[in-house]
Amino acid sequence: MKKSGFGATKAMLNRITPEIEAKFEDANRENAEMIVDMAKVLIPSVTGTNRALIRNMPGADGSQLIDFGPKAKVIEGERGPRPFVNPAMAATKKKRAARSRKAIRDAIKAVK
Amino acid sequence: MADGYALALQKALVTALKADAGVSALVSTRVYDQPPQSATRPYLRIGAIEPRPLRTDCKKAANLTFGIEAHSRPVTSGRVEATRCAEAIVSALDEAALTVTGFDAVQVHWQTQTVDQDSDGQSYTAIVAFTALLDG
Predict the structure, then answer these.
(1) Tag placement on chain B: N or C end, fewer CB within 10 Å?
(2) Under an 8 A CB cutoff, do A44 and B116 touch?
């Protein structure tokens, strides 16, 4: 396999500043919030208890852990249909991808 | 006190849904925030409204994700009635020019919908999800 251009990529990676990393984290957080909002709307729940348990938790490394609450397991099973998790993921997929792409584009512009 | 984003949007949604001929043909004026115990089905219920502030330099705005639920208990038609209600909701609200008191409704976009049988085995619930951008 021919590898070329890694030197330039490595140089760009070395120029990533904490400000750029913070922008990535913001984009990731906004994506997680978008999934959470959509799941809260789509969960088939009359009371707000299960809805309130859907939340995203930030990790120390900028990651986001989404807890869909106990209802996800009860009504969806291990491999069964996922009536509010999968639709929430699918409905937000394009916007999340666009936001991630924009964060990467901005980062490349900043370090080039 | 003036209504905030969520309540102003809810009022606008009820008005828009009741005024739409396609929705009225299916549910008459049965569009509820909290439906009465003995509500005739099918009926619509305003579901969750999740506002998120938009951080801009000079203006206030909010992105709202909201759902409209259609509750149906058909005798023979399965999920058809609930699906028809969902389609009528989409037709009434997708890219609609909503009149939201105190705010400008910049856009209302349909995102997705689900139709599922309820745990009682007789009823169906359709949930139609939208996002809205309110300015002001």
Answers:
(1) N
(2) yes
